[in-house]
Write a structure and sequence with these properties.
The protein is α/β, with parallel strands linked by helices and 459 residues long. The protein contains 20 helices and 14 strands.
């Protein structure tokens, strides 16, 4: 991300605080303007395109919520972060419902501010809906892990599009590094809830004793350190989508709490007595086999059935090796622009090495390798000698592939055909000869197993 091309506006009637935030963000490399009231800020919004606006809630003449609503009419793709004192958290929740990305409580924690700003900008790079803004942000955003023309990825994207238009609960399954959160965000953005909040919770990162307060919020005095009412993720996501990442790591108590909310849509804040109801769509994700976990008693079956109404399974990279050339091209172009290096391409021989590697870290691992090559490779064409040792060493020892217990004959045949095509540089005539079948038979099997490119005719 080229921070110098990111435009941020800070709006606060406390001039000292406003200037302090402006300076802190400028030190991070952003282009930052400041205004001390909503009317002056609106004039700036009319003159310049801002990626992000940080605004105080309480200001004279025009409060933060009024400013947000007026500014969104002029610049719908700009993201807003509300700054609020502890006593106005309810107003912050109202602002979230009106379309703010998030809020910060005063007094401000500058590290929290920097982290939230970066997170908001990364979110914007994925979610920008205005075509002109999307083009401006495209070079600065992270390249998508979901690129690909393979049959399996076309099916994933098609299913995501279909479920997006409904209100149904979705469970996204896939190994780490396959892009589960990107699919969740895509479902949200293509849904009728696109204008409402997308709130993410990493279930694996929350200790059990904090989980209930994080999900459902807490009242002032509910426990030591609860100095003010704080809304939970369910309240913040009201009207939008709540993304529960790594749901398989949710504690048994957390599973029970979540199930109760899914059954009747109501909950209590920690320390509260009033029952609350929200309108939230649940999208969950896991890298675990929840069916196996449920059978072993580690995950509640009743919760699994609630979540897995529509499963979306993202394949690992090793099962869509034909997408690797497109992914590599995208990653190399992005990181060359990001690091201001000459554009690079990968030779056919180097690409074949990449296609034969199983990529345990999936597309994220391939993306990281691409960034490394942009920095370390001097030539404009990346050759096998430029690749790290683990790729070449694997290729030298990879004389077989692994069959898993329970694998069907069709799955084994698909792996054998893919491995053969990789070994003979996708030459179908040579591959058919090695497999002991006709080229016509191979062509039909490629279509049968989803290994045939969309534009390849069946002969």
């Amino acid at each position: 991300m080229d921070k110098s091309r990111i435009n941020i506006l800070v709006v606060d009637d406390e001039r000292g605080l406003c200037a302090g935030i402006q300076e802190a963000l400028r030190r991070e490399g952003y282009s930052v303007d400041a205004a001390n009231d909503g009317l002056a800020a609106l004039r700036l919004v009319g003159e310049r395109l801002y990626n992000l606006i940080l605004t105080d809630m309480k200001m004279p003449e025009m409060n933060g919520l009024q400013f947000l609503q007026a500014a969104k009419e002029r610049s719908r793709d700009t993201l807003f972060i509300l700054m609020t004192a502890y006593g106005t958290v309810e107003s912050a929740v109202e602002a979230m419902k009106a379309g703010a990305y998030d809020y910060l409580a005063k007094p401000l924690d500058l590290q929290r501010l920097r982290t939230l700003v970066l997170k908001a900008l990364e979110f914007q790079a994925v979610t920008a809906e205005n075509h002109e803004l999307r083009l401006r942000l495209q070079k600065r955003s992270e390249p998508s892990l979901l690129l690909g023309n393979s049959e399996v990825m076309r099916k994933v994207n098609q299913l995501a599009d279909e479920v997006a238009r409904s209100e149904i609960t979705v469970l996204i399954e896939g190994e780490s590094g396959t892009g589960k959160e990107l699919v969740a965000r895509s479902i949200h953005l293509k849904s009728p809830r696109a204008e409402r909040p997308f709130i993410s919770v990493n279930c694996a990162a929350l200790p059990e004793q904090l989980l209930e307060a994080e999900l459902f919020g807490h009242m002032k005095g509910a426990f030591t350190g609860a100095v003010a009412d704080k809304p939970g993720r369910f309240q913040l996501a009201d009207g939008g989508t709540l993304f529960l990442d790594e749901i398989g790591d949710l504690s048994p108590k957390g599973q029970g709490d979540l199930l109760r909310v899914l059954e009747d849509g109501t909950f209590r804040m920690v320390g509260g007595t009033k029952m609350m109801r929200v309108n939230v769509r649940i999208v969950a994700a896991t890298n675990k086999k929840l069916q196996e976990a449920a059978a072993a008693g580690r995950f509640r079956e009743d919760l699994l059935y609630r979540l897995q109404i529509v499963p979306v399974v993202i394949p690992p990279l090793r099962e869509r090796a034909e997408d690797i050339p497109l992914l590599v091209e995208s990653f190399l172009e992005h990181f060359a622009a990001k690091h201001q290096r000459r554009r690079k391409k990968m030779s056919a021989a180097a690409l074949q090495l990449c296609q034969r590697f199983p990529w345990p870290g999936n597309v994220r691992q391939l993306r990281n390798l691409s960034e490394r090559l942009v920095i370390t490779c001097k030539a404009s064409t990346i050759e096998p000698a430029d690749l790290p040792d683990f790729l070449r060493e694997h290729d030298q020892t990879a004389t077989s592939f692994t069959l898993r217990p329970g694998m069907t004959l069709a799955e084994a045949e698909k792996l054998l055909i893919r491995q053969t095509l990789n070994q003979v540089t996708a030459n179908r005539e040579a591959a058919a000869k090695l497999l002991g079948i006709s080229r016509r038979s191979l062509q039909y099997k490629l279509k049968q197993y989803g290994l045939l490119e969309a534009d390849s005719p069946v002969e």
